[in-house]
Write a structure and sequence with these properties.
Length: 347
């Protein structure tokens, strides 16, 4: 599992570009944001299980006598930080990386652990990371940025997410984004799994175990929930956030009942302590409460649509007061807009 020279060079290249674009942002906009140190820390969940966070993103790790099992690496810089923290606390290496799913903001940087670890993902993860066919056209939004009309987006043409995530989208590191690279998304630093599993897999190390459980595709086809039987705990990402509103307007979600079904599948898993990729550490009841919020929002928005109310009217009338102490409660108008879209409001 030695790092190839090509991969090492790509990494170097990637970092150079990231640094360059951060500096460019600073020079152009005077934005200090890109330079701010991320908030990081580690808390004990229970038994040998710990949660580590990078700003609003969480991962977990299980310490055993023969090595450490880590879930999402989150990003390369965080993974290097975590590797250093683990090396200072334990004299065993990371032996397993178990991905929750392939999305860039949770799965990037796994290469940091690849020298010592088996990297495991669901069997649909390699396909989700694959580059689409080379003749994939630019999306309409990207085509509008293609000032020189060469069918690709150079850094100087990029704006918004394409500019901010340029190096992570640019799979071959040639400084130009093709339609295929843009369609695949900013996953260039997601290290592909070295092993895949289909429905469930139990990984045992140093007398401890973690179960990888595939759950239905509400958020991503390759979604894995991790269950730690000795700790009576489970780790789940993006489908459930404990004591926090769902992210913004449910991006990419087309069917709310599929999401509710996926949450119910998580509730059917045997655990007491729940750890989310976002939000607090909580209980099985908190998972049910998250589903309860989504069901209440669905019912309120559906009733408003049936009443002929506009989105603006719904955003003014649906207050969800019961949940006002949850994190990111300011996303309520976005949540309402997303549910309105999902339920076909305005059509
Ligand atoms: Zn995700």
């Amino acid at each position: 599992m030695a790092k190839t020279k090509e991969a090492a060079m790509r990494t170097k290249n990637l970092r150079g570009i990231v640094r360059l674009s951060a500096l460019a942002g600073l020079a152009v906009g005077g934005l200090a944001l890109a330079q701010e140190a991320p908030d990081r820390g580690i808390v004990h969940v229970g038994g040998d299980l710990y949660r580590a966070h990078n700003n609003a993103h969480n991962t977990v790790f299980l310490v055993t006598s023969e090595g450490i099992i880590v879930s999402d690496p989150i990003n390369r810089d965080f993974a290097e930080w975590l590797q250093g923290e683990l090396a200072s606390m334990y004299d065993v290496p990371v032996r397993v990386v178990a991905y929750s799913h392939h999305h860039w903001d949770h799965a990037s940087g796994g290469e940091v652990f690849a020298d010592t670890a088996e990297v495991i993902g669901h069997e649909t993860m390699p396909g989700a990371l694959a580059l689409p066919s080379g003749d994939t056209p630019l999306s309409d939004a990207a085509a509008a940025l293609d000032a020189n009309g060469n069918g690709q987006i150079e850094q100087s043409e990029a704006s918004g997410n394409l500019a901010g995530q340029f190096a992570l989208i640019d799979a071959d590191g040639n400084g130009m984004l093709t339609g295929a690279e843009i369609a695949r998304g900013p996953v260039s630093d997601v290290y592909p799994p070295s092993t895949v599993y289909s429905d469930t897999r139990t990984v045992t190390l140093g007398g401890k175990s973690v179960e990888l459980i595939h759950v239905a595709a509400a958020h991503s086809p390759d979604m894995t929930v991790l269950r730690f039987p000795d700790e009576d705990a489970a780790f789940f990402v993006d489908i459930i956030s404990l004591k926090r509103l769902p992210f913004m307007d449910f991006p990419g979600l087309e069917d709310v009942d599929s999401l509710i079904g996926t949450i119910q599948a998580v509730e059917a898993i045997d655990f007491s302590i729940g750890v989310g990729g976002h939000g607090d550490i909580g209980t099985k009841q908190d998972v049910a409460d998250h589903r309860g919020y989504i069901e209440a929002l669905r019912d309120a928005v559906a009733a408003g649509i049936a009443d002929g109310q506009s989105l603006e009217e719904l955003q003014a009338s649906i207050t969800m007061d019961e949940y006002s102490d949850w994190g990111s409660f300011n996303w309520l108008p976005n949540n309402i807009a997303g549910m309105y879209r999902i339920l076909g409001g305005g059509n």
